[in-house]
């Protein structure tokens, strides 16, 4: 027996019974076995029942109940598959660790193998049962879904008496049916509680409204003064604040008195009062009054009231005939207000594109009410709730996000001296950041979108069973050929990648602007650390996203082979520049801020990226040099080891000038410059060299080092100015070249040449 088998065997013997064999039980849990038996029996009953329904299924409630039960069995079967698959893998690993079966092996080894094989057979049997339950549950659920779709189609096309027939019967016969629940109202002690709330809130809301008008300088009602957006909001909320207190007191009174439907209507109106200023401000583009404001606010009121009544089941509190007439009138009013708003919006110049869409939008708005009036009540309810509910939800979400966006813009740091009013009110000064503002903004956006998703599901009457089907589709995915695509994994991988990418950007900014600035590292070293850290996090993000998306790393060999072919054909330069960029970041032969000369390009290195290095010339022209050229070609770096630089200033004086006096003057000028290095052992002191006898001058050259080569040209200019002043003071002449010109002229006779000299 090999050492690995011996290790596993000793491990199973030394561990307690509950932990032996890597937490694998020697027999199947009785509870799981009992559940699987009962689930199998129930699955057969449900299968027979759904097959017996055929094309004539029962009502929606019975179908939903059966589908919910099947989904529960299937979910537990899926969990069973996950658990027992892991156990099978562990048992197989233990059996493989014991090696090949050998009759000469010890009795303990043969007993352990027998026990593991018995456990594997039991786990395999239970795993097969769970897989069968999952498959049968999926088939039954699909059958129920088909029956529900057929039932829904019949319900949508079922026609009842049209509204005119209902109205005539009601006028002649009255309401033969009574309400399912009576509307109750017990005034005491609910009225006292409502009055108490009103007494407490009314002074607070009046004070709040007065504070808003004073803080935002809201003009009086009769004044016609231009107002900003926040002033318009302050004016509208200051007028509505006392009414909100009264509405809240009325809602509390109605609710505690037992009139839940009326309390729900009041709550809808209160919510409408809260969002109406935002709706008005959005529709009217920041103005206090406009033609579109009234229909927009009325439409929001109607939609919210309808949603509240649907949530509490308002049809139970009135007779059926009265409910049908009230619903028809309400739907007609809703459609008329929506068409009114559409007409007003289409007249605006900034919404000219809406004019071409008026007809399809109007047909969509009228579809539900018209279907209800014609007798297709189920279809009318479905279309009305879906279309108007979706529109209201999208509008409210957009208003919420836009309003919060304006608030966050007010809270963000501004470079201007005058900070926004909200920042001043909260006490934040210029340059002071509000902590957690970005994270809060993203969390609110995600919460708003999730809320919108649930609202859309409710608007289109998507049941819990349907959401379960969608959840299974999202979590289990679908197959295209031999590839299984799981949407949830793709979304999670994308979210993780974006999160790590945001982390890389944040860390890059923090390292470059805050953390590394406190160290003694130079700017080039800091940027190299920042770049390498950012690239490392991005690489980890890519690998993690691929892993979470379901890509197995053993398949990367195929991808690597494909990349090799691509590199061989057309990606050589890209990979070459990428690798060269990594070498530049690690080896750092050139760094950001260095003065370099690459071929005909001379300037400062501003950025080293993956593909290229950005060099800014002295004319402020940006030159993108591929990284491979910096590695393979000759590069002159004037600042690699230190920032010293030599300044050479050639000077010529007239023949006959005292050369030693010239040397003293030049040496003095060089040593008196403040940037000249005089006593540093790393570089030579200033020198004046007699270079030779020129054609018209005695040639000298001043050579000295400065501590910052960046100032080379300006220091050279300063030295030339100083030399000119010193030579003028010492009456030393700087000659200029002289030329002798010979002009040849031909005589009139053409016989000879006369030479003249000037």
Question: How would you briefly describe this protein structure?
Answer:
This protein is of the alpha+beta class and 758 residues long. It has helices spanning 3-14, 20-23, 30-53, 60-97, 107-157, 163-173, 187-215, 229-257, 260-283, 293-312, 320-346, 358-373, 377-411, 421-426, 437-459, 464-476, 487-515, 523-548, 556-569, 572-587, 627-632, 659-672, 712-729, and strands spanning 478-480, 483-485, 595-598, 601-608, 612-617, 622-626, 635-637, 645-653, 687-693, 698-706, 742-746, 753-757.
SSE arrangement:
Elements: H1 3-14, H2 20-23, H3 30-53, H4 60-97, H5 107-157, H6 163-173, H7 187-215, H8 229-257, H9 260-283, H10 293-312, H11 320-346, H12 358-373, H13 377-411, H14 421-426, H15 437-459, H16 464-476, E1 478-480, E2 483-485, H17 487-515, H18 523-548, H19 556-569, H20 572-587, E3 595-598, E4 601-608, E5 612-617, E6 622-626, H21 627-632, E7 635-637, E8 645-653, H22 659-672, E9 687-693, E10 698-706, H23 712-729, E11 742-746, E12 753-757
Antiparallel strand pairs: 1-2, 3-4, 3-7, 4-5, 5-6, 8-10, 9-10, 11-12
């Amino acid at each position: 027996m090999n050492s690995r088998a011996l290790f596993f065997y000793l491990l199973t013997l030394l561990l307690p019974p509950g932990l032996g064999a890597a937490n694998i039980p020697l027999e199947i849990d009785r509870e799981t076995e009992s559940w699987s038996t009962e689930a199998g029996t129930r699955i057969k009953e449900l299968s027979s029942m759904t097959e017996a329904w055929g094309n004539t299924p029962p009502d929606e409630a019975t179908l939903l109940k059966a589908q919910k039960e099947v989904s529960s069995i299937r979910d537990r079967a899926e969990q069973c598959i996950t658990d027992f698959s892991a156990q099978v893998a562990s048992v197989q690993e233990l059996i493989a660790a014991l090696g090949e079966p050998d009759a000469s092996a010890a009795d303990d080894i043969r007993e352990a193998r027998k026990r593991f094989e018995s456990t594997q057979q039991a786990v395999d049997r239970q795993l097969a049962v769970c897989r069968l339950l999952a498959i049968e549950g999926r088939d039954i659920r699909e059958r129920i879904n088909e029956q529900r779709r057929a039932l829904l189609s019949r319900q949508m096309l079922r026609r009842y008496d049209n509204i005119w027939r209902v109205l005539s019967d009601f006028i002649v016969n009255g309401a033969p049916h009574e309400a399912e629940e009576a509307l109750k109202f017990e005034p005491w002690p609910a009225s006292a509680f409502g009055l108490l709330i009103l007494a407490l809130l009314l002074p607070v809301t009046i004070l709040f409204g007065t504070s808003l008008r004073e803080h935002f300088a809201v003009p009086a009602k009769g004044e016609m003064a231009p107002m900003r957006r926040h002033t318009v909001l302050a004016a509208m909320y200051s007028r509505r604040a006392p009414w909100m207190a009264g509405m809240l007191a009325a809602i509390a009174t109605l609710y505690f008195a037992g009139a839940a439907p009326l309390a729900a209507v009041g709550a809808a109106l209160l919510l409408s009062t809260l969002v109406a200023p935002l709706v008005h401000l959005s529709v009217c583009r920041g103005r206090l009054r406009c033609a579109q404001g009234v229909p927009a606010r009325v439409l929001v009121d109607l939609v919210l009231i309808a949603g509240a009544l649907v949530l509490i089941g308002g049809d139970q509190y009135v007779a059926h005939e009265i409910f049908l007439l009230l619903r028809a009138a309400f739907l007609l009013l809703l459609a008329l207000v929506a068409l009114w708003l559409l007409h007003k919006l289409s007249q605006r110049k900034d919404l000219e594109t809406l004019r071409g869409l008026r007809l399809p939008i109007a047909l969509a708005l009228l579809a539900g009410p018209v279907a209800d009036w014609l007798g297709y009540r189920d279809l009318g309810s479905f279309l009305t709730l879906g279309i108007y509910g979706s529109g209201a939800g999208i509008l409210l979400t957009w208003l919420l996000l836009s309003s919060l966006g304006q608030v966050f813009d007010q809270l963000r740091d501004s470079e201007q001296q005058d900070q926004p009013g909200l920042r001043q009110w909260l006490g934040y000064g210029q340059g002071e950041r509000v902590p957690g503002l970005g994270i809060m903004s993203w969390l609110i956006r995600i919460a708003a979108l999730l809320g919108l998703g649930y609202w859309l599901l409710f608007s289109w009457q998507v049941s819990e069973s349907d959401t379960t089907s969608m959840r299974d589709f999202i979590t289990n995915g679908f197959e295209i050929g031999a590839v299984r695509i799981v949407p949830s994994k793709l979304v999670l991988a994308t979210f993780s990648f974006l999160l790590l990418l945001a982390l890389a950007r944040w860390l890059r900014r923090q390292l470059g602007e805050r953390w590394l600035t406190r160290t003694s590292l130079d700017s080039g070293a800091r940027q190299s650390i920042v770049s390498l850290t950012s690239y490392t996090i991005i690489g980890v993000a890519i690998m993690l996203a691929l892993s979470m998306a379901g890509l197995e790393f053993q398949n990367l060999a195929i991808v690597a082979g494909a990349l090799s072919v691509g590199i061989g054909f057309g990606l050589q330069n890209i990979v070459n520049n990428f690798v060269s960029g990594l070498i530049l970041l690690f080896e750092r032969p050139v760094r950001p801020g260095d003065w370099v000369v690459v071929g005909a390009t001379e300037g400062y290195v501003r950025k080293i990226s993956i593909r290229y290095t950005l060099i800014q010339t002295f004319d402020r022209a940006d030159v993108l040099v591929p990284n491979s050229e910096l590695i393979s070609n000759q590069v002159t770096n004037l600042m690699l080891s230190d920032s010293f630089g030599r300044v050479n200033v050639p000077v010529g004086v007239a023949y006959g000038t005292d050369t030693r006096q010239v040397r003293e003057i030049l040496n003095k000028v060089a040593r008196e410059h403040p940037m000249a290095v005089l006593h540093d052992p790393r570089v030579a002191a200033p020198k004046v060299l007699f270079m030779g006898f020129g054609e018209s001058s005695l040639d000298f050259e001043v050579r000295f080092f400065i501590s910052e080569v960046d100032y080379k040209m300006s220091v050279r200019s300063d030295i030339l100015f100083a030399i000119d002043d010193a030579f003028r003071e010492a009456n030393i002449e700087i000659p200029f070249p002289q030329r002798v010109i010979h002009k040849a002229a031909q005589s009139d006779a053409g016989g000879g040449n006369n030479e003249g000299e000037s």
